[in-house]
Amino acid sequence: MTDTVFENARIHTLDPARPQAEAMLVRGERLVHVGSLDECRERAAAGARRVDLGGTTVLPGLIDSHLHSALYVRGLEQVDLRGTTSLDEALARIRGHAATLPPDAWLFGGRWDSNKWARPVQPTRADLDRVCPDRPAVLPSIDGHTTWVNTAALRRLGIDVHTLDPVGGQIVRDEHGEPTGILREAAGDAAYDLMRSSLTGDLVQQLRTHLPRLLAVGLTSIHDLDGQDCRAAYETLYARGELPLRVHKSIPSTALDEVIDLGWATGDGDRWLRTGPVKIFTDGALGSHTCLMSEPYDGEPDNHGIAVTPAEEFERLVAKAAGAGIAVAAHAIGDAANRMVLRAYARWRQAACADPAAAGALPRLRHRIEHTQHLSPEDVPLLARLGVIASMQPTHCTSDIPLTSRMLAGRDLASYAWRSLLDTGATVAFGSDAPVEDPDPFHGIHAAVTRQQPDGTPPGGVDPHERLDLDAALHGFTVAGAYASYEEHLKGRLRPGMLADFIALPVDPYQVEPADLRDLTVALTVVGGVVRWQR
Predict the structure, then answer these.
(1) Taking the model in full, what pTM does it have?
(2) What is the residue-wise DSSP string for 133-185?
(3) In what order do the strands lie in the sheet with 107-110?
(4) What is the CA radius of gyration of the chain?
(5) Domains identified in the chain and CATH numbers
(6) Cα dist. 345→296, 310, 319, 321, 328 in Å?
(7) Would you give the distance in Å from CA 202 to the centre of its chain?
(8) What is a GO molecular function of this protein (predicted)?
(9) How many distinct helices (H) and strands (E) make up the chain?
(10) Kind of pairing, strands 428-430 and 414-415?
(11) Quick check: helix, strand or coil at residue 51?
(12) Is 527 exposed, middle or buried (0-12, 13-18, 19+ CB in 10 A)?
């Protein structure tokens, strides 16, 4: 096992015992020493390799704690409607993409956001039929909680005027009861299943081709929130020795019974591929008017959002999962959904404390809330008190500024309240929710520090009291992400005994203006002591 000395760098270790260093000694996958160049050379075995980092700045490898890698890589080969400013522009892109497909292929893609169209009209199957009349088309919105389909897709999905709304979903209908082509939440599940099928191509090949994009932005570990097909693809890559980064792989709620029967538990696996929590949806998203709110949406007095998993069922699933050693990651965006989740976690905790047989799960299981976007202020301290991890995506805050300023103005909410959560002692782990947002973690670091859009608006940032300093933002993408995957002893900091996962940047983030954090680039990405990507 050859020693390697990585030298000639400014190293920010995020280790309070030694915050800065100039060299690192790596043996195998591990850091043996982090300190001065002389110290590392003295400890290196004879014949050690030396890697000159060229005066770059080194940080621990960055961790995305919420990413949909299968949707991300598949989306790179599908029609992308992000950035469209009107329905007509979206339809033009769809027409162009349809012309490139074989006659019998489905059309997939999406990421449209009608809230940002010049005329924010909700699209219909009739619109889609004009440019894609013969092949089925399935196009989720930017938040993934609304699915736009054409008539051919509705027919193939078996949805018509007689189809009942599923629990936790809505088939939007016209005045005659006919489906309009808009499926909300669980009503779109069957369409999403097709987007996870072989109809969308070879996922193993797509991951192999596109995962280097994540390495290129400094990610060395991800927490993947996609389905069992994605896990199978990662297992294939791992078996072939082709997995370039570390994966903490969640379990979809639909597979919970299956994995319990298989004896899986959160934390199973090794340093490259581990089993994560079971993900359970409790509500939708703000842009789709489906996140569960305590007050109704303006202009929609009967709409508080959608409880995708009702409270009683969610509590049952928490107890079932935890009883099998599986932590829960609850998708919750609205304040009512977050309160429901926190109450369920509190009841589980109370029951576990009262049951000697279950009490061992308390320190072992780290339940999470994915997104944690809008909280009632009185609920903010509960996450720390219950030991719940807030898994948040800073760019959602800045992307949603136009939406929240219009839809939530005047409400007593703690929105994207990462500073407040940290002040109570909660763990806040950051991610991107790609492909909903760009996976570049420096976009998220910029958003956490400035709470501004890329153009610098609004001045001072939205809710500036929730801004973070750079240290705290980096901790969200390193130390907290490692804690959320039960790996704080392995990664998140650069110190002896930890995994040799790190990145090198041409510019020191601590030496740039906050506005420039978004544009930082990565020169080198190392995972397990091996250079996996280099500019």
Answers:
(1) 0.92
(2) SSS-EEEEBTTSSEEEE-HHHHHHHT--TTPPPPTTEEEEE-TTS-EEEEEEE
(3) 79-80, 107-110, 137-140, 146-149, 179-185, 169-173
(4) 23
(5) 3-55 (2.30.40.10), 83-141+145-199 (3.10.310.70), 202-530 (3.20.20.140)
(6) 25, 14, 9, 12, 9
(7) 22
(8) hydrolase activity, acting on carbon-nitrogen (but not peptide) bonds
(9) 20, 23
(10) unpaired
(11) strand
(12) buried
Long-range Cβ pairs for the range 461-470 (8 Å, 24+): 462/397, 462/398, 462/401, 462/404, 462/405, 463/415, 463/416, 463/417, 465/419, 466/416, 466/417, 466/418, 466/419, 466/420, 467/419, 468/418, 468/419, 468/422, 470/445, 470/509, 470/510, 470/514, 470/517
Sheet of 502-505: strands edge to edge?
Answer: 30-35, 20-27, 3-12, 49-60, 502-505, 524-527, 530-534
Query: How far is Cα 29 from Cα 50, in angstroms, rounded to an integer?
Result: 16
The residue count of the chain comes to 535
CB atoms within 10 A of CB 260: 18
267: nearest Cα among 209, 326, 320, 208: 326
| Structure token pair of residue 22 | 């100039």
- Along the 535 residues of the chain, how does pLDDT read in single tens digits? 789 999 999 999 999 999 999 999 999 999 999 999 999 999 999 999 999 999 999 999 999 999 999 999 999 999 999 999 999 999 999 999 999 999 999 999 999 999 889 999 899 999 999 999 999 999 999 888 899 999 999 999 999 999 999 999 999 999 999 999 999 999 999 998 898 888 889 999 999 999 999 999 999 999 999 999 999 999 999 999 999 999 999 999 999 999 999 999 999 999 999 999 999 999 999 989 999 999 999 999 999 999 999 999 999 999 999 999 999 999 999 999 999 999 999 999 999 888 776 666 667 899 999 999 999 999 999 999 999 999 999 999 999 999 999 899 999 999 999 999 999 999 999 999 999 999 999 999 999 999 999 999 999 999 999 999 999 999 999 999 999 999 999 999 999 999 999 999 999 999 999 999 999 999 999 999 999 999 9
CB 12 within 8 A of CB 505: no
Amino acid in the structure at residue 19: P
Q: Would the CA dihedral through 277, 278, 279, 283 be positive or negative? A: negative
Angle at alpha carbon of residue 211, lines to 105 and 147, rounded to 5°:
40
> What does each C-alpha distance from 313 to 166, 253, 280, 308, 350 come to in angstroms?
15, 12, 10, 10, 18
Tokens of 507: 């510019």
209 backbone dihedrals φ, ψ, rounded to 5°: -75, -40
DSSP state of 67: E
